[in-house]
Amino acid sequence: MNLKKAGILLFLFSFLYGCSFETPTSFPEEVLNDTMLQLDGSEIQFRDILRKHEGKKIVIDVWASWCKDCIVGFPKLKALQEEFPNTDFVFLSVDRNPAAWQRSLTRYDLKGDHYFIPDGQKGVFGDFMNSNWIPRYLVIDAQGNIELFKAKKADDKNLKEVLIN
User: Fold this and answer.
1) Is the pLDDT reported for residue 9 higher than 70?
2) Which fold would CATH assign to domain 25-164?
3) Tens digit of pLDDT for each residue in 37-52?
4) Starting at the edge strand that comes first in sequence, how are the strands of the sheet with 113-116 ordered?
5) Is the peptide bond before 28 cis (omega within 30 degrees of 0)?
């Protein structure tokens, strides 16, 4: 490969890498307007979920009952809840159907607020997450800003760092 082609490839890689992995610090309007289901089957906009926790730090866990890594991570998540009792925990399920989601809540005894994303990982929220992997943890600060956009494990050192501060 000649030097010119190598330079072009390096430029393209840098450009694409920089654009596709930008870390958001806030939720766009279409994500805030995305509709999710509550335990009673009623709809709620994501913005209203965040409003319920206004003034508090929030850990959002995106998960599903069919996800082995999610289930294996629950003990670490429960330890995180014990370590940070003043943090609110919001669980967003991308399960295939609401019945599987609700059965798993009893089975795994997850404490926090629970919602079901009807479009799973393929809808507005999933597109925003830009992830084909769960579990996924986000931390939202008391002002509603995204403090940590991407953690894949409940014992991720970055997750604990932002919760301590």
Assistant:
1) no
2) Glutaredoxin (3.40.30)
3) 999 999 999 999 999 9
4) 43-45, 35-37, 113-116, 88-93, 58-63, 136-140, 146-151
5) no
